[in-house]
Amino acid sequence: MKIYTKKGDKGETSLIGGVRVPKFDTRIDAYGTIDELNSYLGVLRDQDISAVYKQELIDIQQILFTIGSHLAVGRSSTSMKLPEMKRSYIEQLEKSIDRMDESLPPMKYFVLPGGHQSVSFCHVARCVCRRAERLVVLLSHEDDVDELILMYLNRLSDYLFTLSRKIGQDLNAEEQPWIPEK
């Protein structure tokens, strides 16, 4: 199987099910941003972080591929059996957030991203996650989107924020508060 097909040379691509759409289609932008997020999670996973976080990130990456497959289905749908989105995915993120939050100091201020490269990569992933969420919300105004996808992306950005704080704590990185000018 060749990696190139030459079918996209004129700015169109195929969705699952065969429908051709322009590469600027909201659906393409949404699942492309999910792919970008997945890549940033790979960068984060390659950092010197806890094996627990690495395994959680692998699990999240698997779920993001499931989300991408759902977003890649055209309006006419498909007979292809797609992996199921499950509420338990969201519940697992919530459990992880709660577990990490137990050992973190309470939030008293907004935090500036940074303090350690691993923390910064986590914040970049969080921002890409928020953009993916916005694009999926936009897509949901144009077409049906499983509400669990929206819920998962919303919770995932919360997870990534909490993970950034936890990694910072593990690495003894100082949290830099945002101090607004008066």
How many alpha or pi helices?
5
Total strand count, please?
A: 4
Largest sheet: 2 strands, antiparallel
Q: Which range does the strand content fall in?
A: 5-15%
Termini separation: 61 Å
Give the structural class: mainly alpha
Give the % helix.
55-70%
**Secondary-structure element pattern, one letter each:** EEHHHEHHE
- Tertiary shape: elongated
Low-pLDDT parts are none
Average pLDDT, all residues: 92
**How large is the radius of gyration?**
18 Å
Strand order of the largest sheet: 1-2
Question: What distinguishing features does this structure have?
Answer:
two-stranded antiparallel sheet; 58% helix; 182 residues; elongated; 5% strand; mainly alpha
List the helices and strands and how they pair.
Elements: E1 12-14, E2 20-22, H1 26-45, H2 51-71, H3 87-101, E3 111-112, H4 117-142, H5 147-170, E4 176-177
Antiparallel strand pairs: 1-2, 3-4
What features would you describe in this structure?
This protein is mostly helical and 182 residues long. Helix content is 58%, strand content 5%. The protein contains five helices and four strands. Helix 1 packs antiparallel against helix 2, helix 1 (26-45) packs antiparallel against helix 4 and helix 3 packs parallel to helix 5 (147-170). The N and C termini lie far apart (61 Å). The model has no long low-confidence stretch (mean pLDDT 92).
